[in-house]
Write a structure and sequence with these properties.
154 residues; alpha+beta
Length: 154
Amino acid sequence: MNYKMVEHDEFSVVGIQQSFSYINGEHLSGISTMWQDAYHSGAEDRLFQLNNGLIQGILGVCVDQNEIHEKQMEYWIATSYDGEVPEGLSTLLIPASKWCVFEVQGPMPASMQALWKQIITEWFPSNPYEHAGIPEFEVYPGPNQPPQIWIPIK
């Protein structure tokens, strides 16, 4: 597992969001469909064009909603953006944090899903870090650049 540690101040993202259940892996198929819809509707291209913030590329932001609804998450297809919120999009503030950034190797989406599982089942139990309890995200920087998983740690 290739990873590095980085620290960033808070930053904003703009994008589209949808809630998904963790039950029976519904979030996996739902998120895949959400990405397909964003591609076909042009939302993905629009977000790439709006990207002017701290992190380059398109983000898949995971917001745990267990405190509101058990076994539910909110997923955002977004981009790091500094400015007035464009029409038709929502905004989310990502708090300052230390992040463990993992590089995804291999064909998508299977490699991304496998790395998430490896982080949860292998990396966390063998390291002194805890999840910081704020949104985590995937970064899709663009052509010929490997995707990343950013996990907030403390």
